[in-house]
Every structure is written in structure tokens, then in C-alpha cells.
Amino acid sequence: MGEQGSGGSKKTGKTAKKAAPSKKATPGKKAASAKKATPVKKAGPAKKAASAKKALSVKQVAPAEKVVATGKAVAVKKAAPVKKVAVKPPADESRTALVRRARRINRELAEVYPYAHPELDFDNPFQLLVATVLSAQTTDLRVNQTTPALFAKYPTPEDLAAANPEEVEEILRPCGFFRMKTKSVMGLSKALAEDFGGEVPGRLEDLVKLPGVGRKTAFVVLGNAFGRPGITVDTHFQRLVRRWRWTEESDPDKIEAAVGALFPKSEWTDLSHHVIWHGRRICHARKPACGACPIAPLCPAYGEGETDPEKASKLLKYEKGGFPGQRLKPPQAYLDAGGRPAPPLGAA
Fold first, then answer.
1. 185: Cβ–Cβ under 8 A, 6 or more apart, which residues?
2. I need a labelling partner for 318 at 20 to 30 A (CA). Which of 201, 223, 236, 292 fits?
3. In contact, 82 and 297? CB cutoff 8 Å
4. From CA 304, how far away is CA 249, in angstroms rounded?
């Protein structure tokens, strides 16, 4: 029994020895578990960081999508900011700001119409003077279709002054108001023959003394036949400069003075061509082609006409719309730019 007790004691010792490592192993396991737990705890923030990064990337993508969407919106509605800025320009636009805007408009138009020219056919100052008088309340195209027969029969002021009024009236009938216009062109021809030796004077004060000749007609002749600067305030010019708010004046002489003060004198003749051409081709009186207008960002009246680019393009006239111009014999620069001459009177 003693041996058994002793043996039992030994077994107990072995068990104890075995148990000891078991007890030591328990902390080891706990330590291992703790070590494993530690990375898990660290992994928590890592996952949070990863989630945060994902969230951040999602947040970053969202604005990018918004930017793309905004970019598309801007591309489609490119003129929208223009409408907000231009339709309601500051009422207190300074004089300096007005001058800068006006001159920038002229520069832009000069790029659009580098071949702008007087749209009346003429070979000399006399023909230009007569054609300009005839252009009142009719188109330049109609005048150009009519004057070849007139100048072929009456090439000089003396010839026209001595003509039979009824024959002149018959030639000028297509221009409208043919009786009044016959009286004017025959009267100015007589004045040229008697007072100026059959030559068109090159001074404003002399030109305005001729029958049927006002400042507008005089400046057309001075600017385009003599190279002397002048502003041509026709119906297109009056309409556009008021639409652009260059002036509030309605009297042609006051418009001439107000607009002339915004530009150097050397630019007056070309300025007149640019404005008149734009009025005839794009900025029409009843339905402006706003969606096809190259100066829309500078125009206070943007939105008064058609703003859809596709619809606006169908409103363009003359060479801008792919149609013939107003002159039967246009300058070569116009033809080089893709312009087409007008058909003669009676052509299909």
C-alpha cells in the first residue's frame, strides 16, 4: 500500500509536473490569444481606415461626377451665363466700361466680317451717290439690279440732268417711290453739273447741299469713295447701337455723335460696315438669331431672338446662310470668303 501510496504519489507528481506546464501553457495561450486579439483590435481601425478611404474615394468620385455633369450642362447651355449677365447689365455701367465693350464688339465683328464693304455697286463717286439716294426705303440688292440700266443710258451728271423724267421714272420703278427718287437724282445731277463742274465734291458741307442728300448719304460717299471717315446711321445701325445700349438717342444726328465719341475717327467707316452687315445677316429687327451670334456675351439684348443654335442658324441671311449677297459685282475679297454675287434684275 506504501508502494501504491508512493506510486500514487509519484503519479501525482508527474501529473503535477504535467499540470505545471499546462498552467504555464494557459498564460501562453492567453498571450497568444492576446496577441491575436491585438491585431484584431488593430485590424478594426485598419478596416475603419480602409472604410474611410473607400468613403473618401466615393466622396471624391461624387464631386467628379458632378463636375462632369456640370460640364455637360455648361456645354449644352453655354449661353446661360451670358443671358444672366447680358440681359440685365449693370444700370451704372461706367463710361470706360461702355467704351471697352463697344470697341470689343467692333473687334469681334471685324473678325466675323473681314470682307465687309458697301453693298452698293459703283465704279465712281457719282454712281455711289446716286445709288445711295436710290437705296432709301428699299434694299441695296434692288438698287444694284436697277442701276446698271440707268448708268448705261446716263453715265454722267450732265446726261442724267438732261434726261427725260418719264424715261428715268420707268427705269427706277423697281426701286419704289420712283417719282420722288427721279426728282432727287436728276436734281442732284443738275447741281453737280452747274455748281461743281460735273464732279462729286469731297466735303460734307457741299454734299449735304445737294437735293436728296443728307448726312447719312454724304458719309457713305465720303467714306467709301474718298476714304474720309464717317458714320453711316441707317436703320440697321440705329437699331443695333440702341440694342447694344451704346446710346439711348433716337435722332440719327445724335446717334452719330454719341457713337462717334466711343471710337477713334479712323474706325468710323469700317465700324459702319460691321454694324450694318451684322444687322442684315444675324441681328435682324424682328427675330434676331441670338443662338448664332458671335457677340452674344457682350449683348444686353441677348435672348430677344432665337437662342437655340440650330434654329438660329436657319435665320441667317446672305453668305452666312449660304445665300447670294446684294452686289452683282462684289469685291474679290468677298468672293474669296465664300460670298456669291446677287442675280441681275429679272433673273430666276
1. 130, 133, 134, 160, 168, 172, 212
2. 223
3. yes
4. 20
Catalytic residue among 121, 140, 234, 270: 234
Residue 320 is among the residues annotated as catalytic for this protein: no
> Which is nearest to 221 in space by CA: 238, 240, 201?
201
Give average pLDDT by consecutive 10-residue segment, the chain, 348 residues: 40 40 43 42 43 40 35 33 43 91 98 97 98 95 96 98 97 96 97 97 97 95 97 96 96 97 98 98 97 96 96 97 96 96 83
What does the alpha-carbon distance between residue 115 and residue 124 come to, in Å, rounded to a whole number? 20
Among 140, 216, 270, 320, the active-site one is: 216
> In the annotation, is 140 catalytic?
no
**Numbers of helices and strands, H then E, in the chain:** 15, 0
How many CB atoms sit inside 10 A of residue 56's CB?
11
Amino acid in position 288: P
Residue 100 has which C-alpha cell? 471697352
Tell me the pTM.
0.74
For residues 235 and 208, give the distance between their C-alpha atoms in angstroms, rounded to a whole number: 19
**Which amino acid is residue 83, in one-letter code?**
K
Q: How long is the chain?
A: 348
> Phi/psi at 91 (nearest 5 deg)?
-65, -25
> For the chain, what is the largest distance between any 2 Cα atoms, rounded to a whole number of angstroms?
169
Task: Give the whole-angstrom CA distance, residue 67 versus residue 57.
Answer: 15
